[in-house]
């Protein structure tokens, strides 16, 4: 299957993408991984991206699109892929359509993970990270430490990243609503959108997603 995964920050896209890609035996292609791979390997696109990033500028769509095109042309993506973080806007969605048409293939589904805005704020703003080891992550509501502000694993101080503050989260949501959410209507006009609730246990959401994708494929 060829799937695009969309949803607001905090919807659990990365987690679900990993599970779905494994269940469907297709590669999980994320924008973050594309950038890291191209920059670390010193590709032409990676060097372009690095130059914009070092200058504090947004990386242009054509660079992101070029990275995605190169990744989707690799052998492991021949029979399908799961895109996470791309396309990020309607322009990128249109470019993806052209790419796939040139290859004689098309998307099978756009999986929309739906989460109420206040739940997104609660999920992200509640995160607390250990200063000694960033792999130790807690949550003020869902996974609180035994002692407030102290890491259960090593006793390190727990803190809230600037990116996780409520103000920053609401700004990220505004960007999502203005830039990324319009691709849902774009794909809905192609009858590709499958919307599921991303509330509940991770395994429940995965089962919900797999069932919705199967139903979409069968219809």
In whole angstroms, the N-to-C terminal distance is: 14 Å
List low-pLDDT spans.
none
Give the overall shape: globular
Total strand segments: 8
How would you classify the helix and strand content by structural class?
A: alpha/beta
Which sequence of SSEs, written as H and E, runs from N to C? EHEHHHEHEHEEEHHEH
Number of helices: 9
Q: Report the biggest beta sheet as strand number plus sense, adding barrel if it closes.
A: 5 strands, parallel
Q: Can you describe what's shown?
A:
With 219 residues, the protein is an alpha/beta fold. Helix content is 49%, strand content 15%. The chain contains nine helices and eight strands. The protein has a five-stranded parallel beta sheet, with helices on both faces. A three-stranded antiparallel beta sheet has the order 6-5-7. It is globular, with a radius of gyration of 18 Å. It starts with a strand and ends with a helix. The model has no long low-confidence stretch (mean pLDDT 95).
